[in-house]
Amino acid sequence: MFDKFMKGLADFIYRTGRARKAFERDNPNEIVVAADASKGVVTKSDQDIRHGANWVTSQRAVILLTDKRIVCGKWVIPLDEISAVQLIKYGSGQVLKIQTSNGIHHQFGMQTNPEWTNQQILPLTLEKGQVKYSLFSIIVRLILLGYIIYYIFNRFISR
């Protein structure tokens, strides 16, 4: 129930349905198989999924899987250039990891969506996984926790 709410909220914020319809209108010779609100990053190598600084500045856009390519914002990945693709499910989300034949690695984080697991276009390797925490992510969380404790102490306890 909560997963569906979060997916609906992300799709509303990113206007996923509108982006899908606009793409289909502008590209009548392509069939959209899956569409999702997504955050995407490019990595230099095949890396584990982890919270980190690269996700802070990630590209946020609707990711579209068509019968010819994957489109996400400024990135266009033709299907014939994909050498490996994994869909890693964790909690209420999933990450699509793509490696292209020219050595570029993409990671797209999105809410769980059966359109991706039920599609027949990409030869996905489905996995269950966990999102790891980078040192950057741990430090930011500790700073935030410290600020919350400081605020509560000054606001309610030290009076």
Q: Can I get a quick summary?
A:
The chain is an alpha+beta fold and about 160 residues long.
The CATH class turns out to be Mainly Beta
By CATH, the topology is PH-domain like
Chain oligomer state: single chain
Second CATH tier, the architecture: Roll
Strand order of the largest sheet: 5-4-3-1-8-7-6-9
Number of strands: 10
> What is the terminal-to-terminal distance?
41 Å
| pLDDT averaged residue by residue | 83
Total discrete domains: 1
Q: Report strand %.
A: 35-45%
Shape label: elongated
Amount of helix: 25-40%
Report the major sheet.
Answer: 8 strands, mixed
Total helical segments:
5
Structure description:
With 159 residues, the chain is α+β, with helices and mostly antiparallel strands. The chain has one domain (2-132): Pleckstrin-homology domain (PH domain)/Phosphotyrosine-binding domain (PTB) (PH-domain like, Roll), CATH 2.30.29. It has five helices and ten strands. The strands form two sheets. It has an eight-stranded mixed beta sheet.
